Amino acid sequence: MTLGALSSLTSRAAVMAAARLILAQEGISALTVRRLADALGCSTKVIYTRFGGKEGLVDALYLDAFARLGEALAAVPLVYDPLVRLKGSVDAYRRLALADPVGYRIMFGGAIGDFAPPLASRRRASETFNTMRRVVANCMDAGLLARDDAGHVARLIWVTAHGAVSLELLGLLPENDADARFASAINATLRALGAPE
User: Do residues 94 and 12 share a domain?
Assistant: First the structure.
């Protein structure tokens, strides 16, 4: 969708879509209430009414990005082997990041400068990882990962996935074998956490 296609729309979703396009096409310095209103062909009052200003808009973008991640993790097919589902969850995280690098940067920094999400938003965002924590707990119950705190182990796996994805998005990993490198990093982490060879 282009900014022109959004010009006649001023719903919350349209404003957020326009903001994401501006971030993707023009960068953080271009995302102002005035620029957004101009792109949508509306007054700045629309943005202030819907979001309370730029901070509210950015917070909405942050929560929306985490909601998309939550949907991607929840959409991983239920399979008999919880370790396969865990790997599917990690793959879903990577696919979302590669398909939506702006959303990924909104979630984890860089897209919105010095934006610091409010505590309530950070708490809601952290709930996204409950899906992965539950899958990790299922792996432990099945004897596929060493017994430990499931939240702690899920965060360790996420650290590996996040690091590999971030490097990939920055272009710091060779593109020709990105899939294999990602899988290798995840498998090494899982083995360190007690997964079978």
Answer: no
